[in-house]
Amino acid sequence: MHSGNHFQFSQNQALPGVRVLEASMADFSYDKHAHEEFGLGLTLAGEQHFASQGTFFRSRPGHIIQFNPDQDHDGHAGTQAPLYYHMLYINEDYLQSLAQALGAPSGQSVYARQTLIQHSQMHRNLRQLCQMLQQGIGSGMALEQKLIEVASLFIRLNTDQAPIQSGISQTSRHDAMIERAREFIRDNLRQNLTLEEISDQVHLSKFHFLRLFKQHTGMTPHQYLFSCRLGAARHAVEHGEGLTAIAHSFGFADLSHFNRRFKKVYGMTPAQYQKHLYLNTG
C-alpha cells in the first residue's frame, strides 16, 4: 500500500458519540460498507469518488458529504492527486436528541435529504469542529457549542421538505419489512445467521428477500451483516478487548481475516486503530 495513505481517528469525552477521521489517500479503496452513525464529510484536497445507493458521486473541495446511518458507500481517490478529507461521525440517537432540543418538528427524525451538498457556513463550522477534535483544543463547552452550530445547520438544511434519501423512510410495507430484518441482523451479530433465518423474520422466500433487501439498502444481507459486525467489533476494540477474542466473537475466521476486513473499512488494522485512537480531555 502506498505510503501516502494515512488515517487518524480522534474523539473527546465532552462529546460522547462523536468521533472524527482525518484521512489522506493515494491508492487505498474502501470496500462497500455502511456505518451505524451519521457521517458528515469534507473533501479538502484532491477528489473523492464513491458510489452510494446506486448513484456515483464526485466530491471536490467545498463539497459536504452527508451519509445517513446504514447508507451504503465505498470510496477512493478519484484523480492522481492525493485525497485529503475529514469525516465526522455522530451517533444517531445523540443527533436526534440534539435535533429535538434544537426545535426539529416534534416526534420527527431528521435525516439527510442529499448525499452531496455545498453550503459555505456548514462547511466552515464542520471544519472547525473537526480541527478542534483532532488537535485537542477548546474546552468542553466550546466543543459542545460548535457541535450545536453544526447540528442546527444540519437540521435547517434537511427539514424544509420531506426526506428523499432511500433506505430511511419506514412508511411503506417494504420499508418496515427491511427495517425489521436489519434489526434482527443487528440483534444477532454473534450468531451464524443464514439467509433463510433472516428472510423468515419478514415471511418472504430467501430469493425474494435478497432482491428486496439489496434494492432498498444497496447491500446484500451478507454485506450488511459484515458491516454491522465490523461496527460492533470497532466498539469492542475501543474498549480495549482482546483482538483475537473479538475476531472469534463476531464470526471472523481468524485474526488475519478480521485484520483484512477491518482495514478495508477503517484504513488500518484493529491494533493500529487501538493505538492511534486517543481521548482528549479538553
From TrEMBL:
InterPro entries linked: AraC-bd (IPR003313), AraC_XylS_family_regulators (IPR050204), Homeodomain-like_sf (IPR009057), HTH-like (IPR037923), HTH_AraC (IPR018060), HTH_AraC-typ_CS (IPR018062), Tscrpt_reg_AraC-type_HTH (IPR020449)
A Pfam match: AraC_binding
UniProt KW rRNA-binding keyword: no
Keyword presence, Signal: no
Keywords: Activator, DNA-binding, Transcription, Transcription regulation
UniProt signal peptide: none
Single Gene Ontology MF annotation: sequence-specific DNA binding
Superkingdom assignment: Bacteria
Residue span, HTH araC/xylS-type domain: 179-276
Protein name from the UniProt record: HTH araC/xylS-type domain-containing protein
Species in which this protein is naturally found: Terasakiispira papahanaumokuakeensis
